[in-house]
Design a protein that fits this description.
single chain, 110 residues, mainly alpha, 0% strand
């Protein structure tokens, strides 16, 4: 079983859940609230499975970094969130950090 693929699916579920959380309007809308709850439950379950072989620090760095980049993009495209130059630079640095860890760190391999 490819634990990196499992981690990526976990991240997708977390991003879906976070988007649904925004749409739930403070848990006042049933369907988005249920999607958020189920999405987070599935995301954390898959994250736990991925941690069987991926070091926790590396997995969480990838989880957070990719999630931040995806949610920022979704916020910009779907919700009209404005991004200024510092926000774009910050997100780019987060993405660069994830790439740096996965391409150059020997810790991420086993």
């Amino acid at each position: 079983m490819n634990h990196w693929l499992i981690l990526m699916v976990a991240i997708v579920l977390e991003v879906i859940a976070t988007s649904a959380l925004k749409q739930s309007d403070g848990f006042s809308k049933l369907v988005p609230s249920v999607v958020a709850g189920l999405g987070y439950a599935g995301a954390f379950w898959l994250l736990a499975i991925s941690l069987k072989t991926i070091p926790v620090g590396i997995a969480y760095a990838v989880w957070a970094g990719v999630g931040i980049m995806a949610i920022t993009l979704i916020g910009w495209v779907l919700y009209g969130q404005k991004l200024d130059v510092p926000a774009i630079a910050g997100v780019a640095m987060i993405g660069g950090g994830v790439v740096l860890i996965n391409v150059f760190s020997s810790v991420s391999t086993h």
